[in-house]
Amino acid sequence: MSLRIDAVILAGGQARRMGGQDKGLVELIGKPMIEHAIDRIRPQVKEILINANRNQSRYALYSDTVFGDDDSGFLGPLAGMVAAMGKTQADLLLVVPCDCPCLPTDLVPRLKAAMDAADADVAVASDGEYEQPVVMLLKPSLRDSMKAFLDAGERKIDFWYAKHKVAVESFADQPNAFVNVNTPEQVEQLTQALTQ
Ligand SMILES: Nc1nc2c(ncn2[C@@H]2O[C@H](COP(=O)(O)OP(=O)(O)OP(=O)(O)O)[C@@H](O)[C@H]2O)c(=O)[nH]1
Ligand SMILES: [Mg+2]
């Protein structure tokens, strides 16, 4: 029996650097950023879940499973992950943000291979230099651990996964894979880079 792997796209932040717009719905070369993330991830997983705290009816165009954080206080990405781990039926859950439109097309197989090789509970992507803590593959059974961490007032994802057996997979071979679009200027820059 093969493992089931789902993905959650995190689109639940306030996007303050984007002027408070809903970042997943901000357009980049003719389509909302969430569509870029979906295009990258769709072939790699069974189901895509979307975590959003606003505009849920628009996000429902892309997924049958759209949900907000359990706490309305914008506690950060961990809140979206905890909610997602409670929704998925999968054996493994890929977490990605809505603001990385150029994610690797081989993200899941490589994270899974790294996880298996190290017998790890969490596999985190790296760009070769920095870990990308909102890009990881994890076991949904870790929900209680993450919820306890969040409930204790902790917010930093890397501190959470440091408590578990972690594998890090480098995507240094794809230097632009984790380009992160947080501001209108970065939308402009990436538009220029992609249309040159
Ligand atoms: N569910 C959920 N996701 C969040 C929350 N805060 C940030 N995220 C998500 O985490 C990812 C990375 O966060 P940022 O790039 O800092 O996004 P952000 O917090 O919306 O943006 P800024 O307000 O400009 O920092 C994005 O996919 C966000 O949607 C939150 O409170 N809840
Ligand atoms: Mg960001």
Report on this structure.
The protein is α/β, with parallel strands linked by helices and 196 residues long. The chain has a single domain, classed as Spore Coat Polysaccharide Biosynthesis Protein SpsA, Chain A (Alpha-Beta Complex), CATH 3.90.550.10. The chain is built from 7 helices and 9 strands. The protein has helices spanning 33-41, 56-59, 77-87, 107-118, 143-151, 157-161, 184-195; strands at residues 5-11, 27-28, 31-32, 48-52, 66-67, 92-97, 122-126, 131-138, 166-170. The strands form 2 sheets. It has a 7-stranded mixed β-sheet, sandwiched between helices. Strands 2-3 form a two-stranded antiparallel ribbon. Strand 4, helix 2 and strand 5 (66-67) form a beta-alpha-beta unit. Helix 3 packs antiparallel against helix 5. It is globular. The N and C termini lie far apart (45 Å). The model has no long low-confidence stretch (mean pLDDT 97). The site of guanosine-5'-triphosphate has 22 residues, from strand 1 and helix 3. Magnesium ion binds at residues 97, 99, 180, 182.
What is the correct CATH architecture? Alpha-Beta Complex
Largest sheet: 7 strands, mixed
What is the typical, i.e. mean, pLDDT? 97
Quaternary structure: single chain
- Widest β-sheet, arrangement of strands: 5-4-1-6-8-7-9
Helix content estimate: 25-40%
Write down the CATH topology.
Spore Coat Polysaccharide Biosynthesis Protein SpsA, Chain A
The total number of structural domains is: 1
User: What would CATH call the class?
Assistant: Alpha Beta
Structural class: alpha/beta
The hetero compounds bound to this protein are: guanosine-5'-triphosphate, magnesium ion
Number of helices: 7
Strand content: 15-25%
Could you tell me the radius of gyration in angstroms?
Answer: 16 Å
Cα(first) to Cα(last) distance is 45 Å
- Element string (H = helix, E = strand): EEEHEHEHEHEEHHEH
Shape: globular
Assign the CATH superfamily: Spore Coat Polysaccharide Biosynthesis Protein SpsA, Chain A
Task: Compute the number of strand runs.
Answer: 9
Protein name: Molybdenum cofactor guanylyltransferase
Subunit structure: Monomer.
Keywords: Cytoplasm, GTP-binding, Magnesium, Metal-binding, Molybdenum cofactor biosynthesis, Nucleotide-binding, Nucleotidyltransferase, Transferase
Pfam families: NTP_transf_3
